[in-house]
Amino acid sequence: MKSVLLVDDHTLFRQVLAVTLKHRTDFKENVQAGSLAEARQVLADRDGRVDLAIVDVPEKDATQLIHKLHELDIPVLAFIDVQSLEGRTRALQAGANEVLSMASSDEDIVGVVTRLISE
């Protein structure tokens, strides 16, 4: 069973994304974290065993988490604000496999997630 770690401080966004992924991808287990500290704890509790991480990148510290995920060979989809070229650059430099805007459609998100888990 594939698992995804969803890291975002917006509970509603995490929950909607979790339901969307459960119904439209191979991810049947989702682990949610509302902060970077929670995400680090989840990774420690699971010995780094997740198949994909989706991380919101509004905070500069998020790049440290992305770097850690990259070191663990966990593919990362990072979300940034619509106009944040700086956020996109930071996420990619930290090791994110893909970066999307928070305004992306569910089709775009599902397409990227499907591609990342099949690589």
Topology at a glance:
Blueprint: E1 2-7, H1 11-24, E2 27-33, H2 36-45, E3 52-56, H3 62-71, E4 76-80, H4 85-94, E5 98-101, H5 106-118
Parallel strand pairs: 1-2, 1-3, 3-4, 4-5
CATH superfamily descriptor: Response regulator
Q: Report the sheet with the most strands, covering strand number, pairing sense and barrel closure.
A: 5 strands, parallel
Structural class: alpha/beta
- SSE order, as H and E? EHEHEHEHEH
Count of helical stretches: 5
Topology-level CATH name: Rossmann fold
Radius of gyration using CA atoms only: 13 Å
Per the principal axes of the C-alpha atoms, what is the gross shape? globular
Q: What's the number of domains? A: 1
Output mean pLDDT. 90
CATH level-1 class: Alpha Beta
Note the gap between the termini: 17 Å
Which sequence of strands runs across the widest sheet? 2-1-3-4-5
Percentage of residues assigned to helices: 40-55%
Strand content is 15-25%
Q: Give a count of the beta strands, DSSP E runs of length 2 or more.
A: 5
Account of the protein in words:
By secondary structure, this protein is α/β, with parallel strands linked by helices. It has one domain: 3-Layer(aba) Sandwich (Rossmann fold), CATH 3.40.50.2300. 48% of the residues lie in helices and 23% in strands. A five-stranded parallel beta sheet has the order 2-1-3-4-5, with helices on both faces. Helix 3 runs parallel beside helix 4. It is globular, with a radius of gyration of 13 Å. 34% of the residues are buried.
Summary keywords:
Rossmann fold; 5 strands; globular; 119 residues; alpha/beta
